[in-house]
Structures are given as structure tokens and as C-alpha cells.
Amino acid sequence: MWSYIAKRLLLAVPVIIGVAFIVFAMVRLIPGDPAMVIAGQAATPEYIAAIREDMGLDRPLLVQFGLYFKNLAVGDLGRSIRSKAPVTEEIWARLPNTFRLATASMLVAASVGVGAGIVSAIRPYSLLDAAVMVAALAGLSMPIFWSGLMMILVFSVILGWFPAFGTGSLAHLVLPSVTLGMTSAAIIARMTRSSMLEVLRTDYIRTARAKGQVERVVIGSHAFRNALIPVITVIGLQTGTLLSGAVLTESVFAWPGVGRLLVEGILTRDYPVVQGSVLVVAFVFVFVNLAVDILYAVADPRIHYT
Amino acid sequence: MIAQGTDATTLDGHLYTDSPTASIMEHMIETLFSFEPDGRIVPKLATSYTASADGRTWTIKLRSGIRFHDGTPFNAEAVKFNLDRVLDPATRAAFRFLIDRVTEVTAVDDTTVRIVTNAPFAPMIAHLAHSGTGIQSPTAIRRLGADYSRSPVGTGLFKFREWVRGDRVVMTRNDDYWGEKAYLDEVTFRAIPEDGTRVLALEGGAVHVAVRVPPRDIERLEKVAGIRVDNTSSLRTIFVAFNTQRPPFNDKRVRQAINYAVNKRAIVGTSSPPTGALAGTARISDAPIAPNVQGYTSTMTYEWDMDKAKALLAEAGHGRGLSFTMHHPTGRYVRDAEIAAGIQALLRRVGVEARLVTMEFGTYVATIRGPKAIDEIQMGMLGWGCITGDADYGLYALFHSTQWPPNFNTAFYKNPRVDALLDQGRTTMDQSARDRIYKEAMKIIMDDAPWLFLHSESQVTGVRATVQGLIVHPTERMVAHRAWIRR
């Protein structure tokens, strides 16, 4: 197991380098002169030239690339061009918020999704099943910027139950995490349902029932545990979706996280911020994938890693 | 609690470039002079000034007995330190250009500062009223270095308390303020980027003020009890520059014809109830600069006249139609893309086909100011906020022939008479003489029509009815200096 984890960690290195390379190339492929955008309306050509020099944009691309990697190797993501603060500092200030949101959303998605999926699977093709599946389809189809605004309108403006935006108390977390978790909950529900249905048709479930085992145990420990593998895969994949969905959710709910930092970075051509944020998200994604693979072994003793 | 679209970029008063940050800074940091909402420029940290006869030496008297929030005394040395810091190219002060004609700043005695410029420069005092030249505590700047941008120290009505990145800046009342103290205990600026959320936060009562209410929400919001919608004119003028150096727009008649063909009333929406892309929230330009700018006079408008447009086009040899491209940004100015489409539709009615090239602003601004702009751009939409409130800034940068791209004369306009007048306006010290000079210059510019003159934008702000005394400044700043909340 440990050698497997070490191997996977080593394999993550080229992935991260690849991402770093792609991000570097991508931000430079966006048309438009970042120095001009950052300098603002009134900037004189001299000021723009000075900014360009600060950003190292006056140097050949290869030199820029070399410097970028050299700094990256020692964990230096550069300084934000807009705020002039170190990018690592900008990201650290926001990363806990993004984690909080992603974790809460994942909890919402997993509990609602798995719960709804099991309920559907127990009574397949019933009215309840149809209702859950329609709700799942709706959850999947609603764009975050719309559902988010609706949540604010209903639960904040009309009912006044939860704050509409920003961070602070636990209550601040409710609306954004439910909005963000909804889409993933829908996918997880559908996956749980089909996986459960498949397992419920197997011989060992019939055997368990024939033995006179109570239904709760049949569903809970015999069927569910075996149906869990594809569900874990989906949950793992959804973590990536949650991180990218966070970009939208954070904007709608004015949530000060990495996603919004990224959006603002792109809009203002703040190269170091864009590079840094994408790298951090990629980093998290790689580790979540690894965690998912390890969880397989926990859920299914037949899976061994060597 | 005030909700803006973006968070502060930096809290160093010399380094920011955007107006949301300026709104925050002006609560903590003060300038030598102040630009009042009605366009007047009055002393603030200064008490008076005199200019030498040649217009190159300015002697400024300062208020005495003022201390920065950290206890450092405010004096001539502090002013010198700040102006020198802005002038030092290594500081990278974005608004350095406002005072870049200054060659020397001297602290004559504790309450007197002398500023020498390399040429007579009439807008000097207006430029010292811009918050980019604010006076900050020299002690704090020296002590904190780069970290100063996270804990600003000024002399203003409010003191810095905390900055939660991406979320909010909180300030508390300065009880040692040198003048009449603020009424509010605390002012918070929150960043809520999504328009819909910002408006909902106002409706739900979570914030007291929401800036930039989108035109589509105005009518609805006005009907909500407990909320009022303020419509304040801004100093930002929106226009489409013609490339006056290349056909077809090197012909004045074509430029005038386009001006006649575009019905600005339809765009601004002056009918009642308001219609049009802007729902009545803008003011049709009757000069190249907005009202409230010192030097503004109502000059003329091109009233919508399709026959006149057609006749002028025919006279210029385009009787059988004309086609060209028009570049415009999207998402930068209020409803910019919709306005461009409106112009396209209006021009079609006089047989003119404008092909629209839509760009994201970052790309756009690099293109229209790029080295190939003179050959590539025929018409380009742009906005110009005359942030100093002085006509020099609103005209010189846009119409003087030395200011072609990469500067901002994107019309490549060149008229020797206008050049001469703008030079004169810059060096004439007497304000009424300057007004006359600018009046003549604007008359020539309007007639030459290097732009399709559109409108000056309005700032639409949603405010809880309990909020009193809030000022929405024409420079696009929210000023809560004298605001209070009625219970």
C-alpha cells in the first residue's frame, strides 16, 4: 500500500509540471496586453512599459518560462500584478474558504445523492422513484448562476433564514454549499440508484433474503457496500466538478475563495495569479484522485495495491 | 455597509488604479485639495495656495495641528515625502502622470510647501485633488515597506480596521479627526461581483448600498418599499472614435453624416417610461466632456436627421451606400454591446453597413491602442472618465495630435488650431480665460466630428431609504463621510 502511494505521488510530479506548462502557455495565448489592462484607463505608455518590465513581459518567452519554473521549484509563485502581494499569500488567504465550501458541498452532495439513490432503488419504477429522478434531472440541468440567485431570493430575501453572501458563520455556508452540491447530488443519486438496482438483482441478495435476513441489513450492508465502488468513483470525479463549480458559486455568493481569485485574475490579466490558482486546483485534484483510489481498497477488500 | 462589484486591489493610496478601491481609500486618506461633487475644487489638507506669475511655482499653505492615524504629525515634510514617492518611477504610482511635470517639491517651513514645474501647468491644483496623490503617513510607509499596502494610515475620517481579501474592508470612525467627525461608527465595503446578488443583498437588507444596479433592475427596484434608486451623472463620456486619417472617415461629411444618422435618444431612452438600451440612465453628450468638468460648456448635439445624413453621404460620394467595420468592447461600459448593435441597426436605415467586431476589453484596448491601429481600426467605441474634473484631462489626452496611440487619441485627430488651444488651456492660469479657450476648442471638435458623440454615463445606485447623506460622486466614488442611518 505505502509503495503504491509513493509511486502515485511520484507520478503526480510530471502531471503538475505538465499543468504548469499548459497554464503558462495558455495565459500567454489569451490575446490582449496584460500590462495595458493592469495599468488602467489613464496609463501613459511609459507606465505601461514599466509594468511590462516588472512582469518580465519584455523578455523572450523562453527566458520567462525558465524563470517561472525556477521560481516554481522553490515554491515561489511570483507576485500579483494588481495587488503587488505574493501570489502564495493571496491564495493562502482564500484556500481555506474554498476548502470549506467544497467540503460542505461534498457532504450535501454525498448524503443527499446516496440517500435519494437508495430510496429510488428500493422502490424502482414507483412514484417516489420517478419523483426523485425528476428532481435529480432538474438539479442537474439548473445552471449555478440561476439556481444560486433563486436560493438567495427565497431563503435570504423572502424568508430571511440565511445570509445571502460572504463568509463568517456556519449559516453563511448553507446556501452556497447546497447550490453547489445540488448538481453533484443529482449525478450521485442516479449512479447510486443504477448501481444499487444491479446489486439487488444478484444471487447473493436473493440468498440473504431467503435466509430471512431483515431488509435493513440486506440493503444496508449486503447491497450498499457492494454498490459503493462506482459511487465512490463518481464522488471522486465530482470533487473536481465541485472545484470548478466553485468558480461560479463563489462569484454568485461573493464567497472569497480561490475560484473568484482566478476569475478576477483572468479578467485583469494577472498572469501570476491565474497560474498560481490553476496550479493549486490541479494539485488538489491530483490528491483527491489518489484518495479515491485508496478508498476503493477500504470499501472493497478484494482490491489490493502493490 | 456598501456593496461594490470588486474588492480593493491594494490599500496603498498611491498604487491602485480602479474606482472601487478609490472609494475605500478616500475614507481613510485625504488630499491637499478636494474635488467637490458640484465640480468645485476646495482646500482640504491645504488652506490656500498661490501660483507665481509664470505659472511654474506653486506655494501651498497647509493646515496645522493634524496628525495621521498613527500619531505622526502632518506637515510639509510629510507632503514632500508623499509627492516625492508618487514621482519616483520605482514606486510605480499609476497616477504619477498627474504631477509628472513637477521637478521639485520643497518643504519651506512646517506648514508651507513649494512645488516647481518644468512648464506652466494650470490644472495643477485639480490634479492635487485626485486621490492618487493622497497624503499617507511617512512613518508607516517607511516602517512597513511592501506590507504598507495592507494597513494604510492617513488623516481621514475613518481609520483602517481589517481587510479580508476578496470579501471586505472595514473602517472605524477616527475620533481624533481634525474637522467635524463622521457620524457612522463603522463603514464596510463588501465585494459582491454578481449584479443579481448585489441587488438581492440590498433587497434583503444585508447591505445599505449597492453600486451599479443593472438597467434591467431599475424599474423593479424603484417599486420595492424601503429602497430608493439614485441616478447620478458620472464624468465618463462614451463615444465611438472615427479613424480620421483613413477613408472613409478622413472626410468630415461622412463623420457628420454618421452623427446625424444615429438617434441618441433611442439609445439613451429619454422617453417615458424609459426605454432604450440604457433605460434613461445616461445623458446625451452635448460636448466632448461631461458636465461637472471644469471647463465644460454645452456646445451642440447632432439631432437625429436621416435626410441630412443621406444628403451628406451622397455629397461625399457614398450615395449608393457605405460599409466599414466598427470595433467595440463587451462588458466594460454599461450595455456596450447592445449599444453597438443599436448603432448598427440605425446606420442600416441610411444605407450604411457597419460590421461589428466584438472583443473582450483586455483584447480590445490592446488592439485600438496597438501599433497597427491606424491601418486596422476604422471606428472604435471607448469611454473616458475625466477623473481630474478638469477639461485639460478630458480633452488634451483625446484630441491633441501628440496623443495618438499608444496614447488615447484613438481618432488620430489632428487640427493645428485645436492643438494650439489645448496647449493654451494648459498654460493659462486664469480660469475664465481657460473656459473661453476650451469653449472654442470644443466648438471646433464638435464640428469636425472625430467621434460619433454618444452620451455620458450615469451611476445607478440602489440605497436603503434609511441611509442619509451618502454622496455618489461624479468620479464614481461612494462617499460616506457625512452619511448616517435613520432609525
TrEMBL record, chain A:
The keyword Membrane applies. It comes from the Bacteria. One of its GO terms (molecular function) is dipeptide transmembrane transporter activity. It is a multi-pass membrane protein. GO terms for cellular component: plasma membrane. Its main location: membrane. The chain crosses the membrane at residues 9-30, 101-122, 134-164, 170-189, 227-253, 273-299. SUPFAM superfamilies: MetI-like (SSF161098). Residues 95-296 form the ABC transmembrane type-1 domain. The keyword RNA-binding does not apply. Keywords: Cell membrane, Membrane, Transmembrane, Transmembrane helix, Transport. Belongs to the binding-protein-dependent transport system permease family. This is ABC transporter permease. It comes from Eiseniibacteriota bacterium.
